[in-house]
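Work Package 3 (structural annotation) set out to generate three-dimensional models for the target panel prioritized at the project kickoff. During this period the team completed the workflow that converts sequence records into discrete structure tokens, so that structures can be stored uniformly alongside our sequence database. As a representative example, we reproduce one entry of 437 residues exactly as it appears in the project archive.
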Amino acid sequence: MEMDLNGVLGALQSAARSVGAEVTSPWFYFQVGVVVVGAGIALAIGTGIRSRVDRARLGKSWPAPFRLIVHTLVDQSSTVVFFVLMRGTRFVMTASTWPSRSYLLSVSAKLALAWLAINLLTSVIRNQFTLRVVSISAWLVAALSIVGQLQPVINALDSVSVTLGGLRFSPLIVIELAVLLAVALWLANVASNFIENRIAQTGDLTPSVQVLLIKVIRLGLMVFAVAVALGAVGINLSALAIFSGAAGVGIGFGLQKIIANFISGIILLADKSVKPGDLVTIGDSSGRISAMKTRYISVAAGDGREFLIPNEDLVTQKVTNWTYTDKNTLVKVAFSTNYEADPRLVCKLAAEIAATNPRATQGKIPNCLLTEFAEAGMKFSLTFWIGDPDGMDGVKSDVMLALWDAFKREGIRVPYPVRELRVRGALPVETVVEVSS
């Protein structure tokens, strides 16, 4: 660990003497009073402006950049008023030959202007947490620069360091690395989203190939962004080889399932066995694939539920893909009638009802077969094709309801179990005669 305590203490003592000399001056308290009064006036005026301006209608027909700037100025109206007041007061004091006694007012005006500029530049950020972190961090840097303490703070942060495996770490390097990583990863995410939209608009690629390309490009951009950020702060990537052994052990023991699911996801995307939009059955889970992620696929059941199934299960387990090569699906409806019905008439009615269903595939004639003479009645099997397996249960229900109506119309009865109870022989009955006296 390297420390330059003398330099840090010297900078702190110099700053303390400068502040002490400034605080002992009566003009310091005068300027503080002007700043406090100006802040109160600016807050009151800004509140009044914001309460009287309808942001929903303000600049509604203007271009988006101008509308965003105007809305930001309205939101920061207190800062704008405070800047104007401080600059005006500073101008009056300078004109009165008191320039050296208005330094605090000048600093306050510059800080307000820096805050306003930062808010204008960061107004495009939608995430509130990210917006606050970026705004406050940028303003702190600007404030240190305005008061002339940016370089001493940088030197102080870089004076304390730790060396690990040939890598030198200091608070300054950590801060720079965090900022560069955030910016690089954000730029990589923006670029990957742009490329993803362009790939999605390409009709020559199948959905599985599109997902595979998007994942490979996104991963490559992320790795490139991290490498650029590490190189920008002076970290040699070859020095990270000391951590490769620990990373290999971690992958071998703790990340087995993650790596297996990642590789399985790439295999699924490459062999096109499943793709977004397919109707699948995996174990007890059935539904349509809505998304394919790095670790899992999302299967929408149609009732509001989504099954998150690991990619490894799709590679190692039996998967029924109803739309793998052909979306045409054979629907089977089993039903029964009593022995008083004409089986030929029953088959004819069933085939006609299936053919008239709006989901039935035209050109493929439905078929009805007598399959069994059972104890309770005759059993039939009706089969017909539909163009899409989605909603197959609803189609079966519609056909069975139509069969019920046709059976009622033709006098055909559906069998139901009948039980007969026969009593053989007579049981002796005892007669009790009561005699009353």
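The two ends are 123 Å apart (CA to CA).
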